[in-house]
Design brief:
Elements: E1 3-9, E2 13-20, E3 24-32, H1 38-53, E4 60-67, H2 69-75, E5 82-87, H3 93-96, H4 99-103, E6 108-111, H5 127-137, E7 143-148, H6 156-168, E8 173-175, H7 176-179, H8 185-216, E9 222-225, E10 231-233, H9 234-239, H10 247-260, E11 265-270, E12 275-281, E13 284-285, E14 293-294, E15 297-298, E16 306-309, E17 315-320, E18 327-334, E19 336-337, H11 338-344, H12 346-358, E20 369-372, H13 383-392, E21 397-398, H14 399-402, H15 408-417, E22 421-425, H16 428-435, H17 443-454, H18 468-494, H19 503-508, H20 510-516, E23 533-536, H21 540-551, E24 555-556, H22 564-568, E25 574-586, E26 589-594, E27 597-601, H23 604-625, E28 628-644, E29 647-663
Parallel strand pairs: 1-4, 4-9, 5-6, 5-7, 7-8, 11-23, 19-22, 23-24
Antiparallel strand pairs: 1-2, 2-3, 9-10, 11-12, 12-13, 12-16, 14-15, 17-18, 20-21, 20-22, 25-26, 25-29, 26-27, 28-29
Helix pairs in contact: 1-8, 2-8, 5-6, 11-12, 12-17, 16-17, 16-18, 18-21
């Protein structure tokens, strides 16, 4: 009997499931995600399923983890302080391609060097400039990203810089050519920056998860879900944490397919921080050809084609004062729900809320609290940030008692972005507690916070909603509206027919909105989804029936919808894809671009065979290292030619090799 353990760490809950022989879910459980130390929540969830199923942990033959940690970190702008080393790029590339925004104040240096499109050196690498810069700034960051011009054609300069960084600083380095074999240097640089930012975070998660499982008696090696739904070893995930973005959502797609057997459907997974929507066609999700996009970032990571929106049960509720009635909007930042933080610090939370309710006028920071997160690296903090951390200390504090002026908001924002501080405030989860559809946490605290929120004045000078039930309904209705928009945007973007407008505009277009309302005048307008929606997530049963009704479609809520990610974590395969290129720098010369540098051949078939063998060996070895057995190799050759003077001329060939197998199981 094969017994598999799947674990998913989400923004709010950590889920665990036990599956026998890849057929039956024999136990499932949830525990609150413990952001200060994710291993605590993992341990509680795993312990619960072991007790529920009455099995010995040593019987588990496969353990696998999916996580929204990387996805949420990028959506919320969190991660370690990093440095970017650009080689051979133009002066304006940092700002022109969004790299400056992605760095968000972290240091960067541009060096002379790089190669041309053929892989020949364009200019010698400025090693002295790098050495001086590293000695001056090298210890200020937790990791480095390195990107050289045309590094996929010749990675020599990236390799040399990485060696120098490790010799001088000892910090981890992310090289862009390790993360993608495609051209587009600035986009590879962006991917390397995000990878470097996530290394410490994912490494801490995996280390603590492994330690906790061993403490519980689970001997099986740990696998991790990648963004395309495939499984990889924990060591592989440590090196390339960027590949775990969309890990949780990808696992949910795999889990949805396994639970429902659906062939054609939309899959919508609502978590605490994000809503992730993908399309199943013929039982398979498509891979995004442009690379995974999460929040504002477009990466070069292979992942399930999915639209990720900063919308979840724990999304921040914003007051909209425009217009006579006013209103709310949600996200993209996740907050700790008031109902949840009140469980941790009931006296502080209730005393503060009561004091704010007694005030004659609403305050700017009413119903908001701060909590420092232990164990997060704090290098590179500015004096004002250190001061705020000292005020917060090691307990929950009302925001009104921490912030002394508006200038300190910027310092607080930076602490939140780095994951050092968490903010608690009103969320849809609080509204659901007030309405009675959730009852897990402190309803009384949620109601007090929502009363405070509803006291804000709209454009006509009236309170937004004096009654807490009315205010809670406004918030939940807004979540329904934004979820509908997320599904419509996905449907329009994946629709085969062209409407000559961006999906975002089409979803919000007045005709679309009137069609959802079933307008009947001289015109009759109807619009909705023509495919079922599979609703996943712990809160799917709370929020999604109204979404299905609004879209006029079948809403499928599987029995184990709340633990779909954990299920998907153990029913996938280990898959490694590697791509490479043969170019033609001159007629009759064929250049294979390898990690060791370019190699030239006089015959195109010899060049193609050399590249195929190299990629096949690399993919197979990496698949074995990633924990696969029974590996099958498939090869795709995309050979591009052109007609010239009646002859067919070789232009370029891109080879993609896939090594796929089942994860190895533990043997006693």
């Amino acid at each position: 009997m094969a017994l598999s353990l799947g674990v998913d760490t989400g923004g709010t809950y950590t889920d665990a499931v036990l599956i026998r022989d890849e057929k039956d879910v024999i136990a499932s459980a949830k525990a609150l995600t413990t952001r200060h130390d994710l291993a605590e929540g993992i341990g509680r969830a795993v312990n619960a399923v072991l007790e529920q199923a009455s099995v010995d942990p040593s019987e588990i033959t496969l353990a696998s983890l999916s996580t929204t940690l990387a996805t949420n970190a990028l959506v919320e702008g969190q991660g370690g302080r990093v440095a970017l080393i650009l080689i051979g790029f133009r002066e304006g590339d940092l700002a022109r391609h969004g790299l400056k925004d992605a760095l968000a104040g972290d240091p960067a240096v541009q060096l002379v060097g790089g190669h041309n499109h053929a892989g020949d050196q364009k200019a010698p690498l400025d090693e002295d400039g790098l050495r001086n810069w590293l000695h001056e700034h090298g210890r200020e960051v937790s990791g480095y990203a390195v990107a050289a011009q045309f590094a996929t054609r010749n990675p020599a300069h990236e390799q040399r810089v990485a060696a120098m960084v490790q010799d001088i600083t000892g910090r981890p380095v992310s090289c862009s050519h390790h993360l993608s074999s495609k051209l587009n240097g600035p986009k590879r640089a962006m991917t390397a920056v995000l990878n470097a930012r996530l290394i410490g975070m994912i490494d801490r998660l995996i280390n603590r998860a492994e330690d906790r499982l061993i403490e519980l008696g689970v001997k099986a090696p740990l696998m991790v879900v990648r963004g395309d739904g495939a499984l990889i070893s924990a060591d592989f995930a440590r090196e390339r944490p960027i590949e775990t973005i969309l890990s949780g959502p990808a696992a949910s797609i795999v889990g949805a397919r396994w639970m429902t057997g659906a062939q054609d459907a939309l899959v919508s997974d609502i978590g605490g921080t994000t809503t992730d929507v993908a399309v199943l066609r013929d039982g398979r999700p498509s891979i995004d050809p442009d690379g995974a996009r999460v929040g504002p970032y477009r990466t070069m990571v292979e992942a399930v084609a999915m639209r990720t929106t900063g919308l979840g049960g724990d999304s921040e509720v914003h007051f909209v004062s425009e217009g006579l009635k006013g209103g709310v909007t949600l996200g993209p930042r996740r907050l700790l729900p008031i109902a949840l933080i009140a469980l941790d610090a009931p006296k502080v939370v209730h005393a503060s809320l009561d004091e704010q309710l007694r005030a004659s006028a609403p305050g700017e920071y009413d119903g908001r609290f701060l909590r420092a997160v232990s164990g997060v690296p704090r290098e590179g903090l500015e004096a004002r940030e250190e001061t705020l951390l000292e005020r917060i200390g090691d307990r929950v504090q009302p925001m009104t008692k921490v912030l002394r002026n508006r200038i300190e908001l910027k310092a607080l924002r930076r602490l939140v972005e780095r994951g050092i501080v968490q903010i608690a405030g009103v969320t849809p989860s609080d509204a659901s507690h007030v309405l009675g559809s959730l009852s897990s946490w402190d309803r009384e605290a949620a109601e007090k916070a929502i009363i405070l929120f509803g006291r804000r004045r709209n454009g006509s000078g009236n309170m937004l909603a004096p009654n807490p039930m009315d205010m809670a309904k406004i918030i939940v209705d807004q979540l329904t509206d934004q979820t509908v928009l997320a599904l419509l945007e996905t449907a329009f973007s994946e629709e085969s027919a062209s409407f000559n407008l961006p999906a975002e505009q089409l979803a919000r277009h007045v005709l679309t909105q009137r069609g959802l309302d079933g307008h009947k005048g001289l015109l009759r307008l109807d619009i909705g989804l023509n495919r079922p929606v599979i609703g996943l997530g712990a809160s799917a049963s709370t929020y999604y029936p109204a979404v299905g009704e609004r879209l006029g479609c079948q809403m499928d809520l599987p029995t184990h919808a709340g633990v779909a990610n954990a299920i998907g974590a153990v029913v996938g395969r280990v898959t490694i894809r590697r791509s490479g290129e043969v170019s033609a720098p001159a007629e009759g010369r064929y250049r294979v671009h390898l990690e060791s540098g370019p190699q030239d051949f006089m015959n195109s078939q010899e060049a193609l065979d050399k590249l195929e063998k190299h990629l096949s060996d690399t993919a197979q070895n990496e698949a074995i290292a990633a924990g696969a057995e029974g590996i099958r190799i498939t090869v795709n050759r995309d050979i591009r030619t052109a007609e010239a003077e009646g002859r067919e001329i070789f232009v370029q060939a891109i080879l993609t090799v896939e090594a796929s197998g089942r994860p190895r199981i533990a043997v006693d």
